[in-house]
Amino acid sequence: MAALREALLAPSDPWVIGLDGIGGIGKTSLALAAILDHATLTRFEDVLWVSARQSQWHPVYGIVNAAHPALTYEGFVSRVLDQLIGSRAAAAMSPRDQAAHMRVLLQEKPILVVVDNLETATDQEALLPSLASLANPAKFLLTSRYSLREAGAVYTFSLDELPLTDALDLLRYELQNRNLLTLAAASDVELAQTHDVTGGNPLAIKLVAGQLSAFPLSRVLDDLRQARGTKVDKFYRYIYWQAWKQLDEDARNVLLVMPLVAEEGGGLHQIEAVSQLPSAQVTDALQQLIRLSLVNVRRAGRPDSVVAARFQPLQYSSPHRVLFAGRSQVASGRAAEEN
Ligand SMILES: Nc1ncnc2c1ncn2[C@@H]1O[C@H](COP(=O)(O)OP(=O)(O)OP(=O)(O)O)[C@@H](O)[C@H]1O
Ligand SMILES: [Mg+2]
After folding, report:
1. Can you give the pLDDT at residue 330?
2. Mutational pocket test of ligand 1: of 1, 19, 25, the residue with most ligand atoms within 8 Å of the beta carbon
3. Is the bond into 313 cis (omega within 30 degrees of 0)?
4. Cβ atoms of 34 and 27 closer than 8 Å
5. Tens of pLDDT, residues 132-189
6. How many other C-beta atoms can be found within 10 angstroms of the C-beta atom of residue 123?
7. Average pLDDT, stretch 269-274?
8. Which ligand number lies closest to the CA of residue 57?
9. Contacts of 195 (CB under 8 A, 6+ apart)
10. Protein residues near ligand 2, an ion, with CB under 5 A
């Protein structure tokens, strides 16, 4: 938060700031906290929020689809203008005039534009240069489940899972909120089992707390381990299906063999060996997986040990199962997306 704050408050660079990481890791929450910060509100004369999100996971209703289509540049312009001059005035202009007018307004005073869930835009990579060209004096804060690092102009913070102590604090807090006081008072050792299945993902932790209000810990852990319960299954499907749809055949194959690579990750050669794919194809597949935050890259240690076989943030076999489920639903069209 401190580093993000500093980037936002800087009077010059960086103009385009990104938060990336897997679904539920806390990108939107961090963006919200940053824009509600007093110093940010003082630094900018206006803060605009554009959500590119098409659907979201809801703890009670499962996946809820939003009415609007995937964000295009025109859609972005019109949503910014709606906030700057009101939707009626914006609607009276042609798309071309809207774009020109927005550009002028963004030059006039320091404005912060948050674009949440940029990964659901029709083409994140095409949209990025357009946004960058609008910056200065305006700043942009983007959140995306896909990596923003390759897009050169984005000053990116990648969000990681919560460390164990923070994860336990959050779990206890959620349990207390549900009046599950006995469970909240359980030992660290007992509650730490949830960390293995949630991987420290805050949304997953909240899900676990929700399940614990209905079922005993052992049952919930078991469910999560096997992705057996419907909602749990939907939750995983939601996160992974979005990413799975983006992968080509090689990347899917590489992802599916990742559990066969050592827990702590493996080098390129190891992945080539288990996937039985030529080096160039593995490299290309890994680039796709890295972009989608489906595998982590660690540069520490041996120089060739760059790829950690870690599905984020649910580091066990369920994503694997879910991906298989996703695959079997490819043939049945949009069913999986709409579930
Ligand atoms: N550091 C944190 N401490 C406590 N709760 C958190 C934290 N980060 C996120 N949460 C909670 O976890 C849930 C998911 O967070 P959030 O919606 O910000 O994730 P996200 O990364 O934006 O996900 P998505 O990719 O689906 O948009 C929210 O309910 C949020 O309140
Ligand atoms: Mg979000």
Report:
1. 26
2. 25
3. yes
4. no
5. 999 999 999 999 988 898 777 899 999 988 999 999 999 999 899 888 999 999 999 9
6. 11
7. 84
8. 1
9. 164, 167, 168
10. 27-28
